[in-house]
Amino acid sequence: MPVATIEWKGELPGAARLIDQTLLPGEVRYLELDRVEAMWEAIQVLRVRGAPAIGIAAGYGVVLGVQRFRGDDRAAFATEVARVAAYLRTSRPTAVNLFWALDRMERRAHADEGRSVADQQRGLLAEARAIEAEDRVMCRAIGRHGLALVRDGCVALTHCNAGGLATADYGTALAPFFAAHAAGRRFKVFADETRPLLQGARLTAWELQQAGIDVTLICDNMAAAAMREKKIDLVIVGADRIAANGDTANKIGTYGVAVLARHHNVPFYVAAPTSTFDRTLRDGTQIPIEERKSSEITHGFGRATAPDGVAVWNPAFDVTPRELIAGIITEHGLLERPDTRRIADHFATHTTPLDRHQGATA
Ligand code: MRU
Hints:
The protein is of the alpha/beta class. The protein has helices at residues 36-44, 51-66, 74-89, 96-111, 117-146, 175-182, 199-211, 223-229, 254-263, 295-298, 340-349, 353-361, and strands spanning 6-9, 15-19, 30-33, 155-158, 188-192, 214-218, 234-237, 241-243, 248-251, 268-271, 277-278, 317-320, 327-330, 333-336.
């Protein structure tokens, strides 16, 4: 069973319950957040993280922000929804899921604007729950489509955490591994520790180990040696935002892994739902990349590991050019050798939950 990453508790007013990922794997602690400011902070400091989970958190964050609105002044309620969504938009810049989830919540409020405020509040909770429910379905579909890549006896490598902790179900990049494990296949996964915040060590290794999957932890700088000496057969990573041409932003270090994979002739796959595409961006140069505070590098986990005052560059993500990507596993199937035309075709032949929703409320 995947871990309960984030869910709504109670009705209205209620709370968002989430596992505090900053404490893992040492401590499994659930938080109940009942204010939007607490959700903003949880997203910012990565108590909840991973693109799909951030989208779900944003949906529940809007509910938290407006659930105590009293009275039936619909214009004032609409202003409040817009204010709360704008505030949540400032929490983290790269994962597109945050932005489409907030757009979607605002569209829901707009579609319901003729209803009472209480009805609109219920509608927003239903919308946030729908985002969570759709994410579960997308994870399972990605697992099914990625299953063929995880052959019996194969050795895979992943970077960061795109597992259950990053989604409402069992992940994107890790979904094919969970599906293959359920199908009785034997395989090994190498997990990059993922400096500086160690999502690979703290979260991916923990999740795979809990599931009984054969996982080996390596430092990021061991990936090249692992490819050569451990005969890595494939790489699967997640994504935070994919441009119209297939260039993919994911956790810092992903680009390096893709370059290494090309050198070693290892196929490099991205697993992500179609909701992670941002087709308003022509290519990866337009994806906003979050820069985080220097202390994550100089004082990782509380201990000084660099001289005081040293200059630091700490981008949280990088962009892997589409040429290095063998395929993107979406909830609809494997999109091989992504480029602008193939991605447009993929969208033209499949309806996404997002499209269906936009069609319903446009
Ligand atoms: O900074 P994080 O931990 O939110 O970064 C997460 C990643 O880069 C994941 O690989 C990505 O969001 C995909 S999660 C299914």
